[in-house]
Fold this protein.
Amino acid sequence: MSIVEELPEDVQQRMIEKLLGKVNAERIKSATKGFRPTPVIVAYEYYQLPKQLFRNWRIDRIENGRKDQYLANLDKEACLIEVKPFAERASPSSRWRSVSSLRRLNASKSASPTRTDGTPSWTN
């Protein structure tokens, strides 16, 4: 019997989640044979809650489309301190993005794509 098998089941589950991600940890429970893990894509969002006067910044962790609260009740300086190291080493698997920057990005995109002659691209 290995050391891992002797651990309590909740500890084993947390180890699996850390190694494979939450989505794959849930999938492995129901897998019968030939389990192949899916790639784990992690992103972080930070934003300000509008109706609070202080300590109104929050950081969320998004893993394969599932949003979990990472840190909450931060002031602006503490939030930026938490974000700074990750923003400096931005990699494809771990991204930081501000909700307001996403809104600006989406607003700058054209709502209806057009051809050079002015007709919409979905028409023939």
